[in-house]
Amino acid sequence: MSFRPPIRREPPKRGELYFADLDPVSGHEQGGRRPFLILSILSMNQSPLEMAIGLPITTTYGTSTLHVRIDPAESGLPRVSYAMPEMVRAVSIQRFSRHLGRVSTETLETAAAHTGFLLGLGRTKF
Q1: Which of 20, 82, 87, 109 is an S-S bond match for 36, by CB 3.0 to 4.6 Å?
Q2: Residues in contact with 126: Cβ distance below 8 Å, sequence separation at least 6, in sequence order
Q3: Pick the CATH number of 16-119 from 1.10.260.40, 2.30.30.110, 2.30.40.10, 3.30.70.980
Q4: Cβ atoms within 10 Å of 10's Cβ, excluding its own
Q5: pLDDT tens digit sequence for 76-104
Q6: Pairing label, strands 68-70, 51-58
Q7: Hey, is 112 helix, strand or coil?
Q8: What are the Cα distances from residue 117, in Å, to 2, 41, 83?
Q9: What is the pLDDT of residues 19-60, one digit of tens each?
């Protein structure tokens, strides 16, 4: 049996969507295998930490006014979906199985602003 090193792929880029396995989780964290929107900058994503910061995606509408709509035409996702800024998390890039597409600059900036709002960075209301 021969040793096979892990496949090295390009680091994820800000605004890209990847299919991610977010399990295991604890409490009310969003888990499962689902799309994940990358918010962190490339210098973080390609660092020796091999981590990225982003948002899980759901297809459930209306659970939060801060959710950010992602249309299939812009993203490559099969149906209308929503980024969940209240579920922001750092994850190992080893959790990503495949690249799904990317969101528009407007969608990315809205998701980042909503996440920043929840973290107390920048705007104080929407």
Answers
A1: 20
A2: 65, 66, 113, 114, 117
A3: 2.30.30.110
A4: 10
A5: 999 999 999 999 999 999 999 999 999 99
A6: unpaired
A7: helix
A8: 50, 18, 14
A9: 999 887 676 667 789 999 999 999 999 999 999 999 999 999
User: pLDDT value at position 26?
Assistant: 74
Q: Are 40 and 55 contacting, i.e. CB atoms less than 8 angstroms apart?
A: no
Reported as a pLDDT band with limits 50, 70 and 90, residue 126 is low
Provide the pLDDT for residue 82: 97
**First CA to last CA distance, the chain:** 58
Q: Which two tokens stand for residue 18?
A: 């990847």
Nearest CA-CA partner of 39 in 14, 10, 76, 59: 14
Tokens of 103: 């969101």
**What gap in Å lies between CA 51 and CA 12, rounded to an integer?**
9
Categorize the per-residue pLDDT at 71 as very low, low, confident or very high, splitting at 50, 70 and 90.
very high
Sequence spans of domains, the chain = 16-119
